[in-house]
């Protein structure tokens, strides 16, 4: 399972309910080909959550028969917002809502707990980095990409020359809060969507699970008042909507088409800032049935306005390996750091 003489790095993906772990050796080979999870315990506070990450670390080493002495570094990702050094925002976030998390240095705490260097990215940046390296392979260091990760919110990542752009405060690539032109996205008379961050008409206010529940479904239920989901609590209806989309339900397709058009507007803006070689789409919408996720990606592509030269140079693709992408991207970041 492991080359005995090779050193390794470990990738840890911290989520609201579970941690996911993987091991990457010095040659760039992953030693784990499936999701390996343990409870993240983030709702129990920082101390319990850091201990759960340490358990994920020791557990993946045991599973892959990897001695601790061969581990050079650990890559860690968590949901944002957080600084480039892994300090959770002083305002907290959906996953780190308790006051004890506000301003907590999760990277530093894990590093002190396991006694190894810890390299931090937010979860969307990690997934974007993995998609980039998986797609471009040996050419990754000479390519650029932009990724939109659709989940409870909308995360993102900008990769240039194979490296994630983190920004001065570590919050570059927060693509969900880019405000987009709404012409061609909303229906006539549809209220302007509002994001939890306070912005009106940013991408997350439309292309996220929160956007579905808060902004899109309340409008579309006025157009489909007899829809079965209209009788459900709005949060439950939002989570159930993807299943209806897979069955080509008209209301669901109307909602997801608006999300895809919003991401297309975002990628159009990205095209004029970074002119990337690839546009990646990840998150919950990618975990749907193949025909549905391909329809969604095609709709995003159709609504991304590129010049002819850009169309010839760029590709559109889904983030691979679904829930494993975060841990694998965190491991890639650790390997790059160790390798210099």
Automatic annotation (TrEMBL):
Stored Pfam families: ROK
Gene3D superfamilies in the cross-refs: 3.30.420.40
Family the entry assigns: Belongs to the ROK (NagC/XylR) family.
Protein name per UniProt: NBD/HSP70 family sugar kinase
Entry-linked InterPro entries: ATPase_NBD, ROK, ROK_cs
Native source species: Couchioplanes caeruleus subsp. caeruleus
């Amino acid at each position: 399972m492991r080359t005995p003489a090779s050193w390794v790095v470990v990738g840890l993906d911290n989520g609201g309910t579970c941690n996911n772990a993987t091991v990457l050796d010095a040659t760039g080979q992953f030693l784990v080909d499936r999701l390996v999870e343990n409870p993240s315990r983030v709702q129990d506070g920082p101390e319990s959550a850091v201990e759960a990450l340490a358990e994920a670390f020791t557990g993946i080493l045991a599973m892959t028969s990897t001695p601790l002495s061969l581990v050079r570094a650990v890559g860690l990702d968590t949901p944002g917002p957080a600084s480039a050094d892994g300090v959770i925002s002083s305002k907290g976030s959906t996953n780190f809502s308790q006051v004890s998390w506000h301003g907590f240095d999760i990277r530093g705490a894990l590093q002190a707990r396991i006694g190894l260097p810890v390299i931090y990215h937010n979860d969307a940046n990690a997934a974007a980095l993995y998609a980039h390296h998986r797609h471009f392979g040996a050419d990754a260091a000479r390519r650029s990409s932009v990724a939109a990760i659709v989940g409870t919110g909308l995360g993102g990542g900008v990769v240039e020359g194979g490296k994630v752009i983190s920004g001065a405060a570590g919050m570059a690539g927060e693509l969900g809060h880019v405000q987009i032109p709404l012409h061609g996205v909303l229906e006539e008379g549809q209220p302007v969507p509002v994001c939890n961050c306070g912005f009106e008409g940013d991408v997350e206010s439309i292309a996220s699970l929160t956007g579905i529940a808060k902004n899109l479904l309340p409008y579309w239920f006025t157009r489909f008042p007899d829809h079965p989901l209209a009788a459900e609590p709005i949060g439950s209806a939002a989570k159930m909507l993807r299943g209806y989309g897979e069955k080509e339900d008209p209301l669901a397709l109307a909602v997801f088409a608006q999300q895809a058009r919003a991401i297309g507007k975002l990628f159009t803006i990205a095209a004029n800032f970074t002119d990337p070689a690839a546009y990646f789409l990840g998150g919950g919408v990618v975990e749907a049935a193949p025909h549905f996720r391909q329809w969604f990606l095609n709709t995003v592509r159709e609504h991304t306005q590129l010049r002819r030269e850009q169309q010839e140079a760029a590709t559109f693709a889904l983030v691979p390996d679904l829930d494993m992408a975060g841990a694998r991207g965190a491991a890639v970041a650790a390997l790059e750091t160790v390798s210099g």
